[in-house]
Every structure is written in structure tokens, then in C-alpha cells.
Amino acid sequence: MTFRDQPPFRADHVGSLLRPPRLLRARESRITAEQLRAVEDDAIRDVIRMQQDIGLRAATDGEFRRTSWHMDFIYRLGGIRPTDEKIQVHFRNEKGELDFESAALAVDGPITLGETIFGTDFAFLAGEVAPGTTAKLTIPSPSMVHYRGGRAAIDPAVYPDQEVFWSDLSAAYAEQIERVAALGCRYLQLDDTSLAYLNDPAQRQLLTERGDDAEHQHLRYIRQINAAIAGRPAGLNVTTHMCRGNFRSSWAAEGGYDFVAEALFSELAVDGFFLEYDDDRSGGFAPLRFVPPGKTVVLGLVTTKRGELESKDDLKRRIDEAARYVPLDQLCLSPQCGFSSTVEGNTLTYDEQVAKLRLIAETAEEVWG
User: Fold this and answer.
1) Which position has the higher pLDDT, 247 or 339?
2) How far apart are CA 62 and CA 137, in angstroms?
3) Which residue of 82, 88, 233, 300 could cross-link 103, Cys pair, CB 3.0 to 4.6 Å?
4) Would you say residue 2 has pLDDT above 70?
5) CA dist 349 to 94, 336, 342, Å?
6) How far is CA 268 from the centre of its chain?
């Protein structure tokens, strides 16, 4: 197999990692922002070393400075604010159901980019990784700004023409991408639950009920992501990660990638796709037949929702199954999602997290060399 010297790598991970207890305690204590950042800095240094020691070629900061994988970014875009209204997202797992509640958002001004979002965070990460390790930045995709509230969240007095909203949103993202590339970013991941959620008929029904065009929404999202990344600088690799929800080891949507697959894989202009494939609710590998040459699929075969360790033989068997639809040389391996998409984290231990990442690195070495 061809050695991969560009992201995504044969052994990779989605981005978020379990917050260490000392960091959780610091977030809850009455310390200054400067003191909290010092604690975050130390925790990030430790987690970078862990990723490097395991043998991963890319490292993130674990999203340790965030409360949420997406809203910490979205609320920092100009023209977007949280509201007093609450949104409930229904999650479930093998043991039952639970709800996640957070503030809704409102687009009540033109969408702009002021500061470079996560700019100082990325600069710290890039300064701490060892030579030969690629610093990876994760941000929510443009789709997430819309999926959270839909048309109803956009003030018609600000955007009487929805096309202007989409144009401004993609332009703000394009500026963000240009700025982080100028900081040295060579590996950017756009996290997107919407493109996976839309495979679930129940999710499409919810969008229809609120007045959105659920049957074609994925086509709009693909166009806007492409507009955001069209001018990305040479040398910047962009991937997208799609999952069906990840909150305290629970999920919100189910269903294979069939509904979006043909448009997604043939039209979305990213370099690689991180796909959730840890159990039956993610469907089969047949949709991968639409992946064109030159695009990489990162198979999320290792679950982050449970601590039990998968077997190498099972992982290799499933990689072989996927290779029936897309060449083995276009495949990589990762967990199915982050370990801590929100500050609460999933229900497994630090040691179990490390074991899963090590399993991915060892399996990838044995499969691809």
C-alpha cells in the first residue's frame, strides 16, 4: 500500500478527547480566565504527548478549551447569538433515552467573521506538536449554523433573501479557512452531523415540519461547504466528519448513508470523509461505491460510546468488506466519533480511550504498513 504523508492518515481520530479530572475541576472553580488557560495548556501538552506516543501522525488539542464541539464556534460568528429559547435534542442509547438542552440561536445581523475563531488555540497546538506530527483543527461545518434552527432562526429583516444568508455564511467560513491556513494549519476538519442526520426519515420529518426542504437540504449543504472551501490555500487538507449525534455515549439519529451518498461522495469537494461505522445503526458499506478515485474514506469502526475493546481480527474483516466498494488504498481507520463532543464526555475511562487509539494505530500498521 502507498504510504500516506498527507491527511487523513491511515490511523487517525476525530478530534475530541476525554477532559482530565483536573481540567473539569478547574472549569467549575472560581479561578481567573488566565489561570484556567494555564490549566488547559498543561492538559493539552499531556494529551498531545499521548497521541504522539501512541504513534498517531496527527494531534488535536482534544477540544479541551470548548464546552461544545460546535456552539463554541458558531456563537463567535458575527450576527449570531444565543437566545432565551431552549432546544431539546432527543438522544438514546442501549439503556434508554435522555435529552440534551441548550440555548437556541438567532441570526439577527449580517454574518461576518471578526476574530479568527480558535486562532490562538490552534497556534498553541501547532507550537507544541513534535516535528513530524500534524496539528489538526476541527470546526463545525457551515451546515450546522442552519441545521440548528433552520429558516425560522434567521431574521427576515436581516436576510429577506435566503441566498444572501448562504453567501455571507460561506464567505465568513472562507475567510476563517484562509486565516487558519496563514497560521500554519494544514489539516482542517469540518464536523457535520446534518449530513448523517438527513439519512434518518424521522429527522427529515422534523425538518419538514419546521418548514425546510428536507428532501433537498443535503444538496444545499454540499453547495455551501464547497463554496466555503473553494479558495482554500494549496497544502491545506480538508476533511469532513459525519456522525449521528454523540452526547454521553448516546446518539440522536439512525440509518445508513444511502439517502445522501451519491451527491455527498461525488460532489462534496473535501479530501476525505470520516464516516461512522461502529454498529448496525450506521448501515452497510454499499454507499461507498459512489466514492470517486482520489478521495479518502476514514472508516470509523471503533466505537467511542463504550469502553469494551474491539478485536483486530474483526476490524480487519470489516476493512476487507469496505474494500469491496472502494479500493483499500483509499481507506483509513479511526474511531466513529469523538470521545467527548461535549465537556461531559462519553462513558468510558481514560485508559479505555487510550487503548482504543492504540488499537487503531496498531491495526492500521498491520493493514497498510
Assistant:
1) 339
2) 10
3) 82
4) no
5) 18, 17, 15
6) 15
Q: Rg (Cα) of the chain, in Å, rounded?
A: 19
What's the whole-model pTM score?
Answer: 0.94
The three-point CA angle 296-300-301 to 5° equals 125
CA–CA distance, 176 with 321 (Å, rounded to integer): 38
From CA 257, how far away is CA 288, in angstroms rounded?
9
Max CA separation in the chain (angstroms) = 58
Residue 133 grid coordinates:
506530527
Residue 123 burial by CB count (10 A; 0-12/13-18/19+): exposed, middle or buried? middle
Q: How confident is the model at residue 84 (pLDDT cuts 50, 70, 90)?
A: confident
Instruction: Look at residues 268, 258, 253 and name the one whose alpha carbon lies nearest to residue 337.
Output: 253
User: 126: helix, coil or strand?
Assistant: helix
User: Crossing angle of helices 33-54/119-128, nearest 10°?
Assistant: 40
Q: Measuring CA to CA, which residue among 300, 320, 339 is closest to residue 8? A: 300
Question: What are φ and ψ of residue 345, in 5° steps?
Answer: 80, 165
Of 332, 315, 325, 344, nearest to 369 by C-alpha is 332
Distance CA 66, CA 72 (A): 6
Polymer length in residues for the chain: 369
End-to-end CA distance of the chain: 7
